[in-house]
Amino acid sequence: MDLSAALAYLDEHASYDVTGRIESPTLDRISALAHVLGDPQHAAPVIHVTGTNGKGSTAHMISSLLGACGLSVGTYTSPHLESVNERIRRNGVPIPDDDLVEQIAGVAAAEVVAGVRPSYFEALTAAAFRWFADVAVDVMVVEVGLLGRWDATNIVDAQVAVITNIGLDHMEFAGPTRAHIAAEKAGIITAQSAVIVGETDPELVSIIAREEHATLLRRGDDFDVSDNTLALGGRSVDLRTPTSLYQEVHLPLHGAHQGDNAAVALCAVETFFAAPLGDDVVREGFAACDIPGRFEVLGVQPLVVIDGAHNPAGADTCAEVFHGDFRPEGRRIVVVGTLRDPAEMVAALRVDDADLVIACTAPTPRGRPAADVAAAAVAAGATEVIVIDDPMAACEHAIRGADPDDAVLITGSLYVIGGVRAGLRRRLGR
Fold first, then answer.
1. Is the peptide bond before 96 cis (omega within 30 degrees of 0)?
2. Residue 38 Cα distances to 22, 31, 43, angstroms
3. Cα torsion through 375, 376, 380, 381, rounded to 10
4. How far apart are CA 51 and CA 39, in angstroms?
5. CA angle 424, 406, 394 (to 5 degrees)
6. pLDDT > 90 in the chain, percent
7. pLDDT of 38 above 90
8. pTM of the predicted model as reported, rounded to 2 decimal places
9. Which 8-state DSSP code applies to residue 324?
10. What is the mean pLDDT of residues 153-159?
């Protein structure tokens, strides 16, 4: 098997036809596959991360802090932006092509022995655990793909279970209320888990607390970000944990929400060690955080930013950072394509505050037509809207027409920003 064959194997196991609520969710396939592989998910302790928004950023922060402590860290996140290798990392470095091929080949062989046909995500999850076992990482940081209880990653036994927040997302699989979603995300908790909860709604926290657990720490009560201010290149935050206060920590990420994520991540790592971290370790760990696609600045004069907001809550946060923190002096140009209800997304992005909206189609079978996105933007009060179906062509048009003091935001779907990121980095010299 070579790389093209490995990727083809994964693609053959992908399905885009899951449109309704899961009636009989199961971990049987991934459990059978992992068992044939020797249950590699138990080869190292695990910090398991879920949440509606912020779980990817939080997982990266946790990994960076653990790395600053001198540990070898395996990180599994999803989805990827440019290559599938990005999902599986050791010490921040994506899995090499040769190793990815070896792991996928192992999963393909195990599929035959196990007598199951895994999904794309299940196959890749098994490959990640197998690689982490092979390279003998000290700890795994594992991001949930969907909800929690029935997610393929939930064959781990989490020493620390992290729930960043609860919002209305993946409503075809859970809901209709945030309480239902909280119950599904709480499914990652085991009786031995220390639970870190970033959600502050008391009703939702009580639902999470019903799961049998070892200990539970709440944002606001047990840990928090006590000061969170705009700083050059990111945020300056004061972080309070059950044992310590870390002041004026520089976080090289944009948006006040990243301060909340940092508080969750720091508490999770302190809980993992059952001890406070050194001030120098905390500063080093956060300074090394580099999270592609999360309000990532690709160019200046004009400002060009990509953000992977893909649900209304994420889009609202994206708009707050773009229109609030950055406060562009010139025109505000928004390039948007989405898989979600266009009306909800463009409203959350506050397109009525934009000077120009360019609607495109996310490059996936589930992408909503650019014309539908444009119609939603007009209905939401956008004053100038054009349709350019291809995301890269839409970005090129936006940048060509922008003056140095204008700002271009590209958002709405990870498929959109993943499809244009490499091309924009080349064009803008990044």
1. no
2. 28, 10, 9
3. -20
4. 25
5. 40
6. 86
7. yes
8. 0.92
9. I
10. 97
Looking at the DSSP bridge assignments, the partners of residue 195 are: 161, 216
CB-count burial class (<10 Å; 0-12, 13-18, 19+) for 19: exposed
List Cα–Cα distances, 408 to 110, 235, 297, 336, in angstroms.
47, 21, 10, 11
Cα–Cα distance for residue pair 355/404, rounded to 1 Å: 15
Q: Which domains are seen in the chain, by residue range?
A: 3-287 (3.40.1190.10), 296-427 (3.90.190.20)
The tokens for 65 are: 């802090």
**Residues 6+ positions from 127 with CB-CB distance below 8 Å:** 88, 100, 103, 104, 106, 107
Q: What are phi and psi of 60, to 5 degrees?
A: -65, -40
d(CA 167, CA 179): 9
Establish how many alpha carbons lie within 13 A of residue 224's alpha carbon, considering only the half-sphere containing its beta carbon: 8
Whether the link from the prior residue into 94 is cis, omega within 30° of 0, is no
Is 74 exposed, middle or buried, given 0-12, 13-18 or 19+ CB atoms closer than 10 A? Answer: buried
Q: Which residues of 341-361 are buried (b: 16+ CB within 10 A; e: fewer)?
A: ebbbbbbbbbbeebebbbbbb
Residue type, 223: F
Q: Can you tell me whether residue 401 is helix, strand or coil?
A: coil
Spatial contact of 411 and 336, defined as CB atoms under 8 Å apart:
yes
